[in-house]
Specification:
By secondary structure, the protein is an alpha+beta fold. It contains six helices and 14 strands.
Length: 237
């Protein structure tokens, strides 16, 4: 069990694109430096080998030639289903949306009961994936009002899932950051940079503090989950 901040300085890793229904990482965004300027390079998480935590490296089972020849996506281009189809064909991976009946019913993920999306995002051709970095800084909306902003997320790189949202409450509690289980996120509106969390401001206020300079240990997670009464996800594996 290991959770790693999304903003950790992984060599060659720029960002992650996640699915807001079950918070699975769908794509790893690679930083290709000078040899593919102005272009996003999306890599399949399944091609990433065991992370090298000491060296902050994510080795991949791909050659430079394979990556260069992958379907091009401009730096600020939207991720459309047409592109995703081409990408899946190139890497010979099964489109994740073909298994959506196993993940959600009527758009609500089975792992996150009550989860919702804003009404503006319910179109037939809706795409549920977005860049984590694009959402960083979004206003966090507790059940009784705004509480701060999204500072980062904590990733489980073995399961390729987001486990926690890191909430910076400096607008209300100067200097304090707290971890909130991603299962508490009830809705996401990337266009308005807002994220709804089903917890009160008071509950968040008294939450165990998160220190970005200290590794996230099992002991810390136990204290956090006991405080909120959350199930311990690592015991179900």
């Amino acid at each position: 069990m290991c959770c790693t901040p999304r903003t950790v300085n992984w060599a060659g890793c720029k960002d992650f694109i996640v699915d807001d229904r079950d918070w699975t990482v769908r794509y790893v965004v690679a930083d290709t430096g000078r040899w593919l300027p102005g272009r996003k390079v999306l890599l399949p998480p399944g091609k990433v080998q065991n992370p090298e935590f000491s060296g902050r490296r994510l080795p991949v089972k791909l050659t430079k030639k394979q990556i260069i020849a992958s379907p091009p996506l401009e730096e600020h281009a939207a991720l459309l289903r047409q592109y995703e189809n081409r990408w899946c064909d190139y890497y010979k991976v099964s489109p994740y949306w073909q298994e959506e009946d196993k993940i959600c019913v009527a758009g609500i993920p089975t792992t996150m009961p009550g989860a919702k999306v804003s009404s503006e995002r319910k179109s037939k051709e809706e795409v549920h994936v977005f860049s984590v970095s694009d959402l960083t800084g979004a206003t966090i909306v507790a059940s009784d009002g705004d509480i701060g902003h999204l500072a980062d997320v904590l990733m489980d790189l073995k399961a390729w899932q987001v486990r926690y949202a890191i909430v910076d409450t400096r607008n209300w509690l100067p200097g304090k950051q707290v971890c909130v289980s991603i299962t508490c996120v009830e809705w996401v509106d990337p266009s308005k940079q807002r994220v709804g969390i089903g917890l009160s401001k008071e509950k968040i206020k008294n939450s165990p503090e998160y220190n970005p300079l200290v590794p996230v240990t099992e002991e810390y997670q136990v204290v956090l989950h006991d405080y909120y009464g959350w199930p311990k996800y690592w015991k179900s594996h």
